[in-house]
Fold Imidazolonepropionase.
Amino acid sequence: MITLITNIKELLQVREPGVQKVAGADMAQLPAIQNAYLLIENDTISDFGPMTECPKINADTVIDATGRTVLPSWIDSHTHIVYAGNRVQEFVDRINGLTYEEIANRGGGILNSAKRLNETSEEQLYEESKVRLEEVIRQGTGAVEIKSGYGLTVEGEIKMLRVIQRLRDNYPITIKATFLGAHAFPTEFKENHEGYLNLIIEEMLPKIAEENLADYIDAFCETGYFSVEETERIMKAGKYYGLIPKIHVNQFTAIEGIAACVKHGALSVDHLEIVTDEDIEVLKDSGTMPVALPSCSYFISIPYTPARKMIQAGLPLALATDFNPGTTPSGNMNFVVATACIKMKMTPEEAINAATINGAYAMGIAETHGSITKGKKANVLITEPLHSYYELPYAFGSNRIATVLLNGKIVQ
Ligand SMILES: N=CN[C@@H](CCC(=O)O)C(=O)O
Ligand SMILES: [Zn+2]
């Protein structure tokens, strides 16, 4: 099956093989070809270049992209798409003055979602989650990481991870699964942290590893949730089973969790609304990707990740949605890219790099996703006719994606 996209006004994020991520000043560069073609063989990008070099072949499908931009699909490296019900009441409580912390202290927040999830059947959970997955595919996401973490019981966590596996089996989007048993302490373990850590390490992890249900391990390293020392125990236990850490850290407070994550070889550190100079130092020259989640900052009115400061220090940065029922009931990467430009003062080039190649690194899939590169998966987006790709973040409330290809096939 051969697909040829012709007359592309701008083909964005064109990279040689081997580029895993971009950092610092390099984030401002978004390599592009004007008036280009893109050749897809089966599910793989096989060639691209200027129209003057377009091969004369009999393609099965030819798409004329006159006036349109073509770019790699968005990579959403941090989501909690699998959940039951919603938390609209907490949304209204926050409008009326309560904070996220106050709501959590009253038994709301993560524990609210966990209660609901444990009362929901696996079938129902799958049905609710697939609607969200279908929506983000339409919005241009071509790869998504999905976390557990609303079970907080052996059965609940396994149920979530099985749903993630079923989504992976049934949809063309690339999915990675992360075990987040250490998302919050269930009420019965509030005064018995040791007991819950033992449950995660001795019961949940061996079962998850046996069924091969997760790729990564996560913990919510935060004041009032998992301490740095507790997070280190979770990371070590995960690594024993081959799960690389990707950690929630520095959302509300900086407690030196980032240093611990770097020490344990975390693939990414996510949230980073509060970042100290020491945190930035420790991330320099590490293999750990910082991930910002601007829709979360927007929705619960907390600071935005200091992107400018981090990029100026030479760091890379990825962008993801954090799609979840509490702090970010949206999986729209177009909004994330726009909000990063508008609120974090990232340039469109930096934001697109952060939402494609750097997101792929944060998901451990940079070899196959995140750029227009020969041999990579043909997960690409074709926009509506645009004057320039700047219109993607400029039109912040709109979706300018007209066509979505996953594995070389048009799905939208
Ligand atoms: N901060 C931790 N976890 C989620 C929110 C969880 C929730 O409130 O349900 C987040 O990334 O924002
Ligand atoms: Zn999250």
Remarks:
- DSSP finds 15 helices and 16 strands in the chain.
- Residues 2-73+370-410 form a domain with the Urease, subunit C; domain 1 fold (CATH 2.30.40.10).
